[in-house]
Amino acid sequence: MKHDKTKIISGKDLGQLALKDFCPRCFWIERKLGKAPSIFPGIFSTLDSLTKKSVKRSYLERNCLPEWLPIKNAARPIEFPRISVPMLKYGNWILTGDPDEVLEMNDGSYHRVIGKI
C-alpha cells in the first residue's frame, strides 16, 4: 500500500541539500537522531535575533534605521508571517521558512536586510 503523505522541508534544510559538501547520510542521521552538540551553541541565532530587534527598536523609538545599517530610503520594517510554498512539481513537498528582516522602501519595493537560510 502506497502512502501519499505531504513532506515538509524548511528553506534552511533545502539550502543544505544544495551545498557542494552535502552528505545524504549525515542529513538522514540528523533528521532521525537530532543534531549533534555544537561548539557554538546558538550564539549565531542569538546574534541574528539581537540584530533584527535592534533594527525594529531603532525604527520604533527614533523613526529611522540604526546608523550602522547603510540603507537609504527605507519607509519602515514590516512583519511577514511564516511562509509555506507548495513545490508540487518536485513531488508532494512544502517548503517552509521564516523571512529575514524586511524593509518596505519609499518606492513600495521591499529590501531584505539580514540574510540567513
Task: Explain the overall architecture.
There is one protein chain. This protein is α+β, with helices and mostly antiparallel strands and 117 residues long. The protein has one domain. Helices cover 32% and strands 21% of the residues. The protein is built from 3 helices and 6 strands. The chain has a 3-stranded mixed beta sheet. It is extended and about 50 Å long. The mean pLDDT is 76.
What's the helix and strand layout?
Elements: E1 7-10, H1 11-17, H2 24-33, H3 43-62, E2 74-78, E3 83-86, E4 93-97, E5 102-105, E6 110-112
Parallel strand pairs: 1-4
Antiparallel strand pairs: 2-5, 3-4, 5-6
Please give a quick description of this structure.
With 117 residues, the chain is an alpha+beta fold.
**Main sheet characteristics:** 3 strands, mixed
Helix content: 25-40%
Number of strands: 6
What's the helix count?
A: 3
Structural category: alpha+beta
Strand order, biggest sheet? 1-4-3
- Shape estimate: extended
Order of helices and strands: EHHHEEEEE
